[in-house]
Amino acid sequence: MLSLRIAARFLRRSPAQSGLIAAGIAMGIGVQVFLGSLIISLQENLVDETIGSSPQVTVAAGTEGEPVGFTPTVRDALGVDERITTVVPVRGFSAIYRREAESAPLQVVGGDLAALDTIYDINGRTVSGTATLSGDDVLVGRDLAEENGLAPGDTAALVLPDGAVSRRTIAAVFDFGTAAANETLVFVPGPFAAEVLGLGAEQFTAVEMQLTDVFASVEVADELRADPSLAGLTVTEWQSQNRDLLDALQAQSSSSYTIQLFVLVAVALGIASTLAISAVQKTQQIGILKAMGMHDGRAGRIFLWQAALLGVAGAAAGVGIGVALITLFSRLGSTFTISPQWGFAAVSFVVGVAVALLSSLIPSRRTSRLDPIEVIESG
Amino acid sequence: MAEPLLVAEVLGKTYGDVVKTVALSDVAFSLGRGEFASIVGQSGSGKSTLLNLIGLLDTPTTGRVVLDGHETGPLGRGGRARLRNELLGFVFQFHYLLPEFSVLENVLMPGLIAKGVEKQLRPRAEEVLALLGLEGLEGKNANQLSGGQKQRVAIARALLNRPALVLADEPTGNLDTANTALVYELFRKVNAELVTAFLIVTHDRTVAQRTDRILEISDGRLVQDVRNTYVAPAT
Asked: Are the beta carbons of A6 and B100 separated by less than 8 Å?
């Protein structure tokens, strides 16, 4: 590995130049790692906030108003797919909250608290009271509670679809982070919802599901639609109903990729120009090495090795800088958790080394083509 | 009769495509193993061009060079590089030592280029350094040496691979009289002890008088090839 040895010596001979070029790579990769982790964390946070605590795929009756029979056949059909993590049958209906002359529309979801928790994380999002769903309990959102001065223990009057009024005790107030959910969503015990809707023990209005990968919802929904044991049922998934969110995420990713691309181009140009200067500076050494019999390819590899050494050192330092920036950002009290994306960092490291190697191609080619006579004659 | 080490046949070199400049034409001579010869001539006479052609650093426009039985004409850059490494040692007016490496590493370089193992090359490197009176300087950087020492290290480097022929182009051009005398004594010593042939380019006739054979180049032609019986007095 004489080429590697010479490359290392050339770099050591000009520590300031080598340090600057490695710092350039480090800064570029550091920005990559930070920006990539930021965008990925931001998107994960946004996705989690928006649909993390709501059904991602829903099976409902083909005809509106008809119940879904949550029979063993349906249960088995939904249970075989490993991508489906949670299956919760619910009974939902519309109601109105009435307080004196004022009223507000409600979306009532009835079910078992433990099962609902697996999708909605009601316990984790309870801001006051204790979440229970038995007897005449009702769980209401923060906005509804605040607008109407409600607190756990108070009674809330719900006007049911048939016009009857049900007075229920508020067990807890939750905060789902979105005004729409906090204003309109309420939870009631499953048996009460069944009674309101006139449904039997195995009858529900929908079966809600969550997935291991939220972005697999289209694929999962398509497969469920094709399942003969679910014939007659309609399957909906979150992506088709949240195009704007997806477009926003896509736009965010695109802008992030554009910035990262330009950072890489800037890094590549920096390395290429510095290595080109280095190749000129070392012309005499390369010339005499060739006069002594060093082959063209081996001479050219000196600059590939230089680039590889700079790339590995710079990219490794860059990953460190990226992680340091992430830590600093998190400590400065960001509103969401930004976590280092190690997979992305590994890709950035490889990209950093690859960009360095690519940048060395021109000086490397120039070196391999150098004729020793050019150096000897110019003395 | 033994096969000559070097055969140059009707060697010519012309530069330029549109305006042609003839640097060398119809040069023919041969050199035996262990010969100690010089090429003399005025500046611009073509002697360095001849050395570059023989040293496979440049390719002739006409003629051929046969080195140690190897026909060099058909060789590509890689083949010429291999022969340079195996058969030739170069000493130039400027030492061309690698400042990034120590004296020992500089001397080892031709062996490392030949993919030799450093540990095995080391005794040989130390031997040539001792032959040139450079003991104790192994670990020093080339920049820490005097001009004469640098040139001696360059000679040691040229000798590492036990070349059959050392080509020296004005090797003492940058040295003072004492160092010049020392370098030629060393050349002589190496020539005698290792049976290495020397072909020394010089414009200085007094230097050429120290060699056994003098080839004179004028206007790109070999005008004289004489055996020299003069032995310079010790300085």
From this structure: yes
Report the complex ipTM.
0.91
Q: Does A301 touch chain B (CB under 8 A)?
A: no
CA angle A285, B21, B11 (to 5 degrees): 75
Q: How many residues does chain A have?
A: 379
| Residues B198/B168, Cβ–Cβ less than 8 Å | yes
Q: Are residues A187 and A68 both part of a single domain?
A: yes
Q: Which residue's entry shows tokens 């399957």?
A: A235
CB distance from A291 to chain B under 8 Å?
yes
Name beta bridge partners: A128.
Answer: A173
For residue B134, give its domain range. Answer: 6-227
The two tokens of residue A176 are 């789902």
pLDDT tens column, A282-300: 888 999 999 999 999 999 9
Task: Give the number of domains in chain B.
Answer: 1
Q: Specify the DSSP element, H or E, that contains A378.
A: helix A372-378
| Per-residue pLDDT reduced to its tens digit, A138-168 | 999 999 999 999 999 999 999 999 889 999 9
Terminal-residue alpha carbon distance, chain B: 37
Could you tell me the residue range of the domain that residue A44 belongs to?
2-48+245-378
β-strands A203-204, A68-69 pairing? antiparallel
Tokens 């060699």, residue located: B211
Give the Cβ contact number of residue A74 at 10 Å: 21
Indicate yes or no: pTM above 0.80: no
Residues of B in contact with A12 (CB under 8 A): 100
Please state whether beta strands A233-237 and B70-71 pair in parallel, antiparallel, or not at all (unpaired).
unpaired
What length does chain B have?
A: 235
Q: Is the domain of A160 the same as that of A76? A: yes
- Residues in CB range of B136: below 8 A, 6 or more apart: none
Q: How far, in Å, CA of B32 to CA of B213, rounded?
A: 11
Number of domains in chain A: 2
For residue A248, give both structure tokens. Answer: 């926003």
For residue B84, give the chain A residue with the closest CA. A293
Q: Are B111 and B124 in contact (CB under 8 A)?
A: yes
- Give the residue from A373, A377, A289 showing the smallest Cα distance to B58: A373
Phi and psi angles of residue A106, each rounded to the nearest 5 degrees, phi first: -130, 150
Two tokens, residue A170: 């508020």
CATH code assigned at B173: 3.40.50.300
Q: Is A15 on the interface with B (CB under 8 A)?
A: no
CA angle A178, A184, A186 (to 5 degrees): 105
Put simply, the answer to whether B110 touches A292 (Cβ < 8 Å) is yes
Of the candidates B37, B44, B45, the one whose C-alpha atom is nearest the C-alpha of residue B8 is: B37
